Amino acid sequence: MELTGPGAVPALTAAHEVIRQPLGEILPRLSAVLAELVPHRAAAELSTHCAHSPFKTCGDPEITDRLSTADLAPLLASGVPGRPWQGMLPLAGGERPVLVVTSGATPRGAVLLLVREGAGAPPVDAPAAALVQALWDVVTSHFDRLAAEAMPGALARSRTAAGTRARVIAELGEAYSAALTALLGVLRSRTLGDAAARATATDLAVSALVELRAEAERDQEIAEEPAGQAFSRLADSLRPLVRYSPVRLELGAPDSARTVAADVAHTARVIVRAVLLKVLEQETVTRVHVGWQITDDELRATVRDDGPGALTHEVLAPGRVTERLDVLDGRLDVDAVPGWGTTVAATIPLRVSHDPAPDPLIALGERELEVLARLALGHRNRAIAQELHISESTVKFHVAKILTKLGVGSRGEAAALFHTVA
């Protein structure tokens, strides 16, 4: 694909080629598209839109296997959107030339890291860096839209994966903390003779504990949002809706310093916006109050108006709203009093259920879900292979795994099950 031409068409074609890929293939495709513009050995991203897999890599395993969230978190924090940075960074066991691109196209930001070919790689010129920036902004905007408008099936998989991920992190943290604490106890024992060795090993163990805890905190910062910040984002999206309206919008921010899971915050914002649009369709409304209340167990988002009190649950909660709430075990309550107004309350649990998910598709991996979705549309193996850029034999392998995991005996049964629960 030619990216260096003078016109905008090649860049638009490149952007379309990237965002049309399944989610799991976007970074590899972006890396391939940028390879001739900025030759590189590996690419990595840290995208805060995703609650369960914000960190992704592709490329040379010698590099990608040694990269982690801890490498990209400082780059995200220090990066300036619109100003790509290039230089040398200590990564994957050595000093490596990199191009770092930070996007401000999403509220919480995203960073793309390209690990270049070698120390002698020539600098990336300004037009090329600007094009990389533009493509990354397009991709991150696409990510944010998918997160904000996630279909119920995708939201369920995200929620379950986020819960699993949180539990695994907690278990690993406890195991490593116990091991390192025991190590400290041994090293501090008076029965050991070499004081210098003890001191050095103790320092190393303490540093490991600190890094372990810091890693868990970084992960939480990406997977969750402070409640006040999440509500501020909602407020910013609501004000334009009433800017040229006689309706007065009152906002009640949550009186809580805790954080909420990103999928909960996304859903609460989507539902409040949908309800507010219905409320504003009433001609006699002059005042609307929007507020969030957060307890230890749930987020309660309310929309209260002073209208005629004629709104119903069916009007305020179309299928999409109900489905999103069902996925998160939430509910929508409507209290309409004729002549006094309507109060709508969406309640969403903050804790991820540890019970086995009833959705059998949860057992499938991301690639298997992509294959199953196409299989359910009646696509044959060859067509699926072409769409996903994999071989037919790989498709056959995925189909066999899908049938086994779903406990069905044929492609038709798998497709029927997909249509039932997806």
From TrEMBL:
Record InterPro entries: HATPase_C_sf (IPR036890), Sig_transdc_resp-reg_C-effctor (IPR016032), Tscrpt_reg_LuxR_C (IPR000792), WH-like_DNA-bd_sf (IPR036388)
Domain (HTH luxR-type) ranges: 357-422
Gene Ontology terms describing biological process: regulation of DNA-templated transcription
Keyword DNA-binding on entry: yes
Sequence intervals crossing the membrane: none
Keyword Transcription regulation: yes
Molecular functions per Gene Ontology: DNA binding
PROSITE patterns per the UniProt record, alphabetical: HTH_LUXR_2
Keywords (A to Z) from UniProt: DNA-binding, Transcription, Transcription regulation
Protein name (record): Helix-turn-helix transcriptional regulator
